[in-house]
Design a protein that fits this description.
Structural class: alpha+beta
Number of domains: 2
CATH class of the largest domain: Alpha Beta
Mean pLDDT: 91
Number of strands: 15
Order of helices and strands: HHEEHHEHEEEEEHHEHEHEEHEEE
Helix content: 25-40%
Number of helices: 10
Shape: globular
CATH architecture of the largest domain: Alpha-Beta Complex
CATH superfamily of the largest domain: PurM-like C-terminal domain
Low-confidence stretches: 325-330
Length: 330
């Protein structure tokens, strides 16, 4: 596959399409709230992994929610339940926080597949040490649905809004896993020791608290490139990314990997002087971690492979997840 073909495939991917829908929601929310939502008591604007609300004591209350797509729930109810907790936990750590508790909202036609979803949630709760403290259920639904919300706390924030020109883009991914076929979910979690999972994630808040990084985002269903694009858009910057530098499991085709959701995967924007220590901390946990690009002020994302370069997205003219009215030529 050429770089041009790869670039076009990413733009047309399901993960990109789902993330682009966020722009419509953010635009509608901004139009609906008084003052465009500017008076919301959040430490960061809408568009980050979690809402971050100052706690009055120098820290932040973190709050997030995730919904699972229906075909995933129907075909893999146990892993859908597990993932509902796992992805929320990842969102909290991506903001430099630590999770406190989760609640769920579950719809099912009787206890099938509700029973399997709940078993998966319970296993993830145990693995990540995060209690399930309540929720909502409806066992008389035509189709199964699942949403999971999480509460956490951060002493210092990592956000999507603090990347700066001159930063180095770093990707950290746990490659010790395998695909949850036939879905694009790289599972490095369910068979790993819970203590190891929790210690691996602890790298993120310790980086924030040590002042080594203040900009990060967890790799979502938009994949590694789409997640980087979301971070760049929120920070009003651009970058060039070397696709061959992205940590990738041996034998996995590049396009499949770039459209995958890894159970542990983060994009960080790191000041050059902190790079060595950031890489060392991930390496100490056997997490694959590479510099994949550099942040600039272009507000474009360019992909590079050898001597070839392709423009993936121009944020000067087209929003990705942001409010359309903020883009000068949209």
């Amino acid at each position: 596959m050429t770089l041009a073909e790869l670039t076009a495939a990413l733009r047309d991917s399901r993960g990109f399409a789902h993330k682009r829908d966020i722009s419509d929601i953010v635009t509608a929310l901004g139009h609906s709230l008084p003052g465009g939502g500017a008076d919301l008591a959040q430490a960061v604007p809408v568009g980050d992994d979690c809402a971050a609300i100052p706690d009055g004591h120098g820290g932040y209350l973190l709050f997030a929610i995730e919904g699972l797509v229906e075909d995933f729930i129907e075909r893999m109810p146990w892993f859908a339940g597990y993932s509902g907790v796992m992805v929320n936990v990842s969102d909290i750590y991506a903001m430099g926080g630590r999770p406190t508790a989760v609640v769920d909202a579950l719809w099912s036609a009787g206890m099938q597949p509700a029973d399997e979803m709940l078993k998966g949630m319970a296993e993830a709760s145990s693995q990540y040490g995060v209690p399930i403290v309540g929720g909502h259920s409806n066992n008389r639904s035509v189709r199964p649905q699942l949403a999971v919300a999480i509460l956490g706390h951060a002493k210092k924030l990592l956000t999507s809004f603090t990347a700066r020109p001159g930063d180095l883009l770093v990707m950290a991914v746990d490659l010790r896993g395998g695909y949850q076929e036939p879905f694009p979910y790289w599972n490095a979690s369910t068979t790993a020791p819970g203590a190891r999972l929790r210690a691996d994630l602890e790298v993120l808040p310790t980086l924030a608290e040590a002042g080594l990084c203040d900009a990060a985002k967890d790799i979502s269903m938009a994949g590694a490139i789409g997640t980087a694009l979301m971070l760049l858009e929120c920070s009003k910057v651009g970058a060039t990314i070397d696709v061959d530098a992205i940590p990738r499991p041996e034998g996995v085709p590049l396009l499949r990997w770039l459209t995958s959701f890894p159970s542990f995967g983060f994009v960080l924007s790191v000041r050059p002087e902190a790079l060595g220590e950031v890489l060392t901390r991930f390496s100490a946990r056997d997490i694959a971690c590479n510099v994949v690009g550099q942040v600039d002020d272009s507000r474009t994302l360019v992909l590079r492979q050898g001597d070839d370069r392709q423009l993936l997205w121009d944020l000067n003219s087209h929003a990705f997840i942001g409010e359309a009215r903020e883009v000068s030529h949209a």
